Fold this protein.
Amino acid sequence: MQTVFSTEGLHPRSGFKLWRDLLGERLVPIEVERLDDGPFRGRLDVAEIGALYLSRLTQSALRCETTPSAARRHDRAGMVVVLFKLAGLSTSVQDGREAVQRPGDMVVLDHRPSVLTTHRDSQALFLELPRERLEGVLGSTRLYTGLSVGADLASATLATGFIHDLIRVRHQLTPDAAERMSAIAVDLIVASLAERLAQDVPRPVHGSVVVQRAKAHVEAHLDDPGLDPPQLAAATGVSLRRLQELFHERGQHISDWIWERRLAAAAKRLSDPACLHLSIGMLAYGCGFTSQAHFSRRFKDRHGLTPRGYREAALLRASGAPSAP
């Protein structure tokens, strides 16, 4: 990663002030308070990979608060931040949740009032993502901000390891490959959050939480042809009748939601050049369809094109070639 700032070599009296100003300019206007009297150390390294912009912060013990007025002034409402803890400890507080992050953990923080406290020799990787990328699958960020995703989850380990490898090999990637790899990184983050949320609801809780966690389970098991409303209800920890009621309250049907997510996943893969090696049949099975004929019929009803026609049109758009009249 490229170092853009370091307190090394600076006068002890100016290092912290410069660091505080840097955080306000590059991240969000925040109130920063030192928590120890020793020499202050801070370093910022950055990297850009496809659509991802990553910042690695190494700093002494600090208390960083995003106040309501600062959140309003900061024009990042369409984005959220994923923090990957690399070294030391930190504590986050947002939306009524307080959690500790240890090396290997991750946590989502929104651009709303929050407090992040770092201990001595703390290091973390910050990744900013479009809000819709998380909320389209998991629901409102208020359901999972400040919720630590532990390194004990296999999906979290995969996501963290993939991002570290991506940083390491970024200069070897073509622009197209960087875009595809960055999209995979985001998918792994979403899968990690979905797995973490799915852990918390063995019994019925607030309706919106049940629905969003049911949707997270769907997203994580799209390739399972046996995924249906009864199985989803069992996995979510509520009766089928109760889950149906909760979906109906939101103007949705469980089966329709599952098929919509399968069709959306199929459309995404059909338009991805990295999936060209997959036959239509293999792609259909990978999205939970039990037959290619069933997949083709549903896909055409939804998108107005056969899967093959959709793939060809997507490739034409990507190449910049004019469409057939």
